[in-house]
Design a protein that fits this description.
A four-stranded antiparallel β-sheet has the order 1-4-2-3, covered by helices on one side. The chain is built from three helices and four strands. It has a single domain, classed as Histidine-containing Protein, Chain: A, CATH 3.30.1340.10. By secondary structure, the protein is of the alpha+beta class.
Amino acid sequence: MIEKSLDVINKLGLHARAAAKVVSVASRYDSAIHVLHKGNRIDAKSIMGLLMLGAAKGSQVTFQVEGDDEDAAMAELEDLFARMFDEGE
């Protein structure tokens, strides 16, 4: 299992469009992917779960990825966060 914390650095935080992109990435992998934030643990393939986290700009979320393709999944999630969900702000 890989566990890594990522910073939410985009202006609007983990809002609907950003959450949809996380779900899109997570859904492409067979690995189990969970997100932890402020004591909550949700399935990263659930848009409602991601939205309920309320992760605003400046928040830190922790991803737990476990499965045969965990390395590729984590790398793509890290890239998505680094690109600020392709929002440019």
